[in-house]
Write a structure and sequence with these properties.
mainly alpha, 9 helices, Growth Hormone, Chain: A, 0% strand, disordered C terminus
Length: 219
């Protein structure tokens, strides 16, 4: 990889780890927090889980956000928003509070996920991009194991609010670091900042949507 690709790769690695910490921590802590602390019923938990997917369906709106902010900065900002959603979760122990914090967290996660894929495809060609996607996926899997061990270790020492604050603060720190970085290169072709749909790709769109929903249902 050249220097520009190395800078972008390191940038995506750091933010991917932060994003994975956020999502996996939320998934690990949420059910116990919702039932044991907030006292939610099963139908309320299911409703919040459904609301969590709303930002995913609205992710296409990112093309309009990119009209006013650079993509790599939006990636870092999304991580900050994800961390903020995590941090306030333990401070809002109510049904409406969990809806609010979940939406914040989910917007951050989905917007980073979209920009991460886009930046990877912009900076790495068809030979290198699969390798980068694979490496980022592997790092995410390793991070999942690490954050699970960390949460288990924190359980006897910290309450839910403290765990959410600590993890959210770490994620926001990574996002703030990202805001201060500039891993971009001016040698890339200009990016088209609009939604492009092709009728001939309808099957790909459908299968992608189904694959995403299958992964989310399994989680």
């Amino acid at each position: 990889m050249n220097d520009a690709q190395n800078k972008m790769y390191r940038y995506l690695v750091a933010l991917t780890i932060a994003s994975t910490i956020g999502l996996e921590s939320w998934l690990t802590l949420f059910n116990n927090f919702a039932v044991e602390v907030v006292g939610l019923e099963g139908n309320q938990v299911g409703l919040i889980q459904s609301i969590r997917e709303i930002p995913g369906f609205l992710a296409f709106l990112i093309v309009y956000v990119l009209l006013v902010i650079k993509e790599h900065r939006l990636s870092a900002l999304a991580i900050i928003i994800l961390g903020l959603g995590m941090a306030v979760t333990g401070l809002l122990p109510s049904f409406s509070g969990l809806i609010f914090s979940t939406l914040i967290m989910s917007f951050g996660f989905h917007y980073f996920d979209a920009t991460c894929d886009s930046l990877t495809l912009q900076y790495f060609d068809e030979k290198k991009s699969p390798w980068v996607f694979g490496k980022l996926g592997s790092l995410a899997s390793i991070t999942n194991i690490g954050i699970g061990i960390l949460i288990f270790g924190m359980a006897p020492l910290l309450n839910f609010a403290q765990r959410y604050l600590l993890i959210g603060g770490l994620i926001m720190t990574a996002g703030i670091w990202g805001i201060t970085q500039n891993p971009t290169s001016s040698n890339l072709p200009p990016q088209r900042k609009k939604v492009v749909l092709r009728k001939k790709y309808w099957l790909f769109y459908f299968l992608t949507l189904m694959a995403v929903q299958k992964i989310k249902f399994q989680k």
